[in-house]
Amino acid sequence: MADQELTWQGTVARWDRALFDLVARRHWPGADRVLPRLGRAANHGLLWGGAATAIALFGSARARKAAVRGVASLALASATINTVGKWSVRRPRPLLDGVPTVRQLATQPQTTSFPSGHSASAFAFTAGLALESPVWGAAVAPVAASVAFSRVYTGVHYPTDVLAGAALGVAAGFVVRRLARDAQEARVVPGDERHAAGAPALPDGAGLTVVVNTRSGTAAETGLAALRSRLPKAEVVEWEGGDLAAELAAAAARATVLGVCGGDGTVNAAATAALRAGVPLAVFPGGTLNHFALDLGLAGVEDTCRALETGHAVHVGVGRFSPGPEGGGYGYFLNNFSIGAYPELLRHRLRWGPRIGGAPAALLAAWKVLRAERPVPLRLAGRPLGAWLLFVGNGTYHGTGPTPRRRDDLGEGLLDVRLVLGGGRPGPRLLAAAFAGPLSRSPVHVATRLRSLRIADIPPGTPFAYDGEYAKAPAALVLDSLPDALTVYRPRT
Fold first, then answer.
1. What is the C-alpha to C-alpha distance for residues 290 and 228, in angstroms, rounded to an integer?
2. How far apart are CA 400 and CA 416, in angstroms?
3. Rounded distance, CA 466 to CA 323, Å?
4. Angle between helices 46-58 and 134-153 (to 10 degrees)
5. Do residues 296 and 372 lie in contact, with contact meaning Cβ atoms separated by under 8 Å?
């Protein structure tokens, strides 16, 4: 048995060296100048740290989340390689015989060869990124593969060192995704919303009409399967396009309880329909971020099914603005409303996305917004000012900066108003505001809580955003909070 193992190891070593020598002998036009520099750029993870910073600054909320996952995956892979991998298999570095001098690194690595730390870092960052944002992962993958290949090309690793490092990096990406999911489920804590007496119990789903936004992706598809299994008598409407508001209004008119499966924008439209019809709302998380569902305490579809079966619901507050997005009546927001940098970014991204793709559109939109020279002139509560960003949250958010993360009580009936004042360039102002306290005053950032807010003298064509949706603002808007306006199902705490 030992002889067979030695024979197998010898065969792998011979193939490894043969492939190493093949790469060394092969002429790769242009690679002598590019690949050694690319490998050096990846030293200590600097290349990937820079990529993560750029994605976080110029990408969408999902892209920022993906960048954090990528960095976490890289950190895990690096720690594993440097503490366990390098010292478990003490493989010497390859002899540089046959590797052209122009390719060789000026300073040769002193650590052992197996596995390749550069390859592990490259593929860990890419895997962590891709598992959250496939588009960004696909954009970075060729660079990661080039970094890994450069380690063989410059003669510092055997091919199996690179393959093992890449495999460990991908594994680190999956481990971080699992840990992130566990942490997300752990942070889903029900808030202090008031119990809604009299919400009907629907143990088999009879009386429930659920509109499922099939465009929300795999999360909605998974939720749809679980919903049909747990609540077999519910009416399920699969929406694939057309007038979503009309579909939801028709569903609310014939339902005892209106259900919705999709992201925050779809949930916003369903809440509007439920408010106008005077029926309770059941939210089945099916989007990418699910801010409202998580703040409410819903980790997934199973939580909503359990609440419907027992008839447990709570009252939540709703933010309202008038006139509404169609120029009349009211519009509503469950999460937040904003004017300034974010709506402008969203406007450009929606314009360019269909032509060049989501990730490039986000980069181009951020570049254009950060180059803007003028803040938005407004009259806020009777006072004229310029704003890079006006953020209004439905309920008090926790965390720092102009666009914080989480709420503990969706029923308090207050607007969390945060303003990044004009002056200078938007980039430094927004960055400075990000480090300001949640309810602080500084030269660039003002935050307070109000029952209502009047915005006047809005320039024509100014965009505003609400729960991820986009519209053009009228000359004046009034925002207020409706405490306990909506009944939403949530499991008993």
1. 21
2. 12
3. 13
4. 160
5. no
Q: Which range has highest mean pLDDT (143-157, 321-335, 413-427)?
A: 321-335
- Computed over its alpha carbons, how large is the radius of gyration of the chain? 27
Q: 472 or 151: whose pLDDT is higher?
A: 472
- Least confident stretch, 111-115, 284-288, 329-333: 111-115
Is the previous residue joined to 115 through a cis bond, with omega within 30 degrees of 0? yes
In the structure, what pLDDT confidence band is assigned to residue 315 with cuts at 50, 70 and 90?
A: very high
- According to the model, what pLDDT value does residue 384 have? 92
What pTM, to 2 d.p., does this model score? Answer: 0.62
Count of all residues that appear for the chain in the document: 493
**Beta bridge partners of residue 259, listed in sequence order:** 210, 282
Distance, in Å, from the CA atom of 296 to the CA atom of 30, rounded to the nearest integer, reads 55
Tokens of 339: 């004017």
With tokens 């269909």, the residue in question is 354
Name which of 168, 165, 143 is nearest 156 in CA terms: 165
Distance CA 411, CA 312 (A): 16
Residue 186 clears pLDDT 50, i.e. is over it: no
222: region left, alpha or beta (phi > 0 left; psi from -120 to 50 alpha): alpha
**Those residues with Cβ within 8 angstroms of residue 84's Cβ, 6 or more apart along the chain or in another chain:** none
Distance CA 169, CA 402 (A): 35
- Which residue in the block uniquely carries the two structure tokens 């607007």? 415
CB 466 within 8 A of CB 333: yes
What integer pLDDT is reported at residue 351 of this predicted model? 74
Element housing 258 (H / E) = strand 257-262
Residues 6 or more apart in contact with residue 22 via CB below 8 angstroms? none
Q: What is the pLDDT of residues 156-170, one digit of tens each?
A: 788 888 888 888 888
Q: How far apart are CA 166 and CA 154, in angstroms?
A: 17
Position 190 confidence tier, pLDDT thresholds 50, 70, 90: low
Q: Dihedral of CA 300/301/306/310: which sign? A: positive
Instruction: Tell me if 297 sits within 8 A of 188, measured CB to CB.
Output: yes
Whether residue 404 is predicted with pLDDT greater than 60 in this model: the reply is: no
